[in-house]
Design a protein that fits this description.
Helices cover 64% and strands 11% of the residues. The N and C termini lie far apart (42 Å). By secondary structure, the chain is mainly α. Strand 2 and strand 3 form a beta hairpin. It is built from seven helices and three strands. Helix 2 crosses helix 4, helix 2 crosses helix 5 and helix 3 packs across helix 4. It has one domain: Winged helix-like DNA-binding domain superfamily/Winged helix DNA-binding domain (Arc Repressor Mutant, subunit A, Orthogonal Bundle). It has a three-stranded antiparallel sheet with strand order 1-3-2. InterPro entries: HTH_MarR-typ, MarR/SlyA-like, WH-like_DNA-bd_sf, WH_DNA-bd_sf. This is MarR family transcriptional regulator.
């Protein structure tokens, strides 16, 4: 069976999405490096700054192996940005949580990401909502079942 033909509009949209993602990651890596962090460490720290998270859930969110998360959390813990604590709901589960220093660093990282904010700032709230819902639909997520709705 022949591969389906992709129309020029679809090709352009895919290329634009790729360009946005590439620019975001480039800026994120630069911001992380300014704090002597890798991009992966910065992403874990940003996630943990929101709330303590079980190690397995971090791996699921970042789509990586749990052993990779263990190494990342170890390095952040050594720097005093993250701590491990038992989950009050299940003491067999370890939660990783940002320390005060980790939350401050995560906030500084977020504030330094101009590209992630500026293009979206040019869109109205309605346009951002439509874009979010379209991206969720592309990913197969039901936009009515997600937080913030």
């Amino acid at each position: 069976m022949a591969a389906p033909h992709t129309d020029p509009l679809t090709t352009e949209v895919v290329e634009l999405i790729g360009s946005v993602v590439a620019r975001y990651y480039e800026e994120y890596e630069q911001a992380a490096a300014e704090h002597a962090l890798t991009g992966a460490q910065a992403r874990v720290l940003g996630l943990l700054a929101l709330e303590p998270v079980p190690m397995r859930k971090i791996a699921q969110k970042l789509k990586c192996e749990p052993s990779n998360v263990t190494g990342i959390v170890d390095r952040l813990e050594t720097r005093g940005m993250v701590e491990r604590r038992p989950d009050p709901a299940d003491r067999r589960v370890k939660l990783a949580a940002a320390t005060d220093d980790g939350r401050r660093t995560a906030r500084e990282l977020r504030e330094s990401l101009r590209f992630a904010r500026e293009p979206l700032a040019q869109l109205s709230e309605e346009e951002r909502t439509v874009l979010r819902d379209l991206l969720r639909r592309m990913l197969g997520a039901d936009s009515t079942d997600t937080p913030g709705r």
